[in-house]
Amino acid sequence: MDTPIPDTPNAASPLLQVIGLKKHYALEDGKVLRAVDGVSLSVPRGHTLGLVGESGCGKSTTGKCLVRLTDPTEGRILLEGRDLAEMDRRELRAMRRRMQFIFQDPYASLNPRMTAGEIVGEPLRNFGGGGRPRQQELAWLFSKVGLRPEAMRKYPHEFSGGQRQRLGIARALALRPRLIVCDEPVSALDVSVQAQVINLLMDLQQEMGIAYLFVAHDLAVVRHISHRVAVMYLGRIVESGSREAIFGRPAHPYTRALMASAPSARERRPAQVLQGEIPSPLSPPSGCAFRTRCPRAEARCARETPLPRTIAPGQQVACHFA
Ligand code: ADP
Ligand code: MG
Prior knowledge:
single chain, 12 strands, binds magnesium ion
């Protein structure tokens, strides 16, 4: 049984809507790498959307496009109903405060020459007109993520991995975001520390109503934290639904294969694991991108790209046979 995740106020209206997002990289040899190739998703206020899929399927690129760490090639991104592409610089800057990013490796993203207090206070200085962040505000942020006020004077290397991720979270919280893109935020941490950081993120969501796009390849972690889950394969979302639907009644052959290859499932069903390598986003298969690894593939799958269809309330699947 899944532990119920409490609902948050205003969960019905979408905070973030993404429509037809594409990110194509033009490589030096003239080839085009389709990292993200038509992703649509939405995240309600205060909710968590888990984004799963094998390494290289475009999860991080999707997250980076959302917070404009990289510019999308195509598609619309709406925050609170407003299209980011239609905003002027001042509005975009204001919107950027509302969306933050937490990296997998907090060490790589924290400046080693800055104290923890400077690191967490930096967004406040950048966005707050240059004044010194108030000490009280910093103390509050540190206490929110379970760090002692003395920690403000320390440098990143003096912290453990889990504490460094807490610093990354405090920094992301500083501007009171509505959405945080968490890109594999616990996969670099010891298993014993992972749960603490996940529970911290969930507590902060309850208290502050923050929405998360939670990117991870660890299905157990995603199951624990997500209200809804989207499954990505080669730049597209092949299935999305409530946590209960995705884990309880997965309908896409890829979702089923992913579930079956998770460590907890493997003990029970050793036979069914994903066959072969994920194809290159430089030359994705025609039609359904999953067909080259799919046990159900037929001639039609090479010709026709399956569009997402609603197969149950709130559950969409892009497969001709689901
Ligand atoms: P994931 O996070 O799911 O592992 P990524 O979004 O990091 O996947 O990568 C998706 C694809 O895009 C991969 O094939 C990756 O090599 C490619 N890619 C990512 N960033 C760049 C870049 N800056 N230039 C070219 N290709 C990139
Ligand atoms: Mg990634």
